[in-house]
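1st attempt posting a full record on here, be nice pls
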Amino acid sequence: MTTDEFVELLLAPPERWALVKRFVAHWHEPLREGQGYAASELDAAERRLGFPLPVALREWYQLAGQRRARAPPTGTWPRPATRAG
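the predicted structure (as tokens):
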């Protein structure tokens, strides 16, 4: 795969998430239904925040936003309506 093909894949949903799913399944446990937030939950979070989430971040929250994470020290990703600071 060329660099241009790889970049094109990453920028084209839902294909970009297929690559992420394969990566996660290989290195961790596969992503499963029910590990993300519903669109209505994210809509409500955006209303509370007063701005829309970036598209890729919203897609990630829908895919795996409630999944137990290994990277963050808290063990989970912050809820989408949480603001730092």
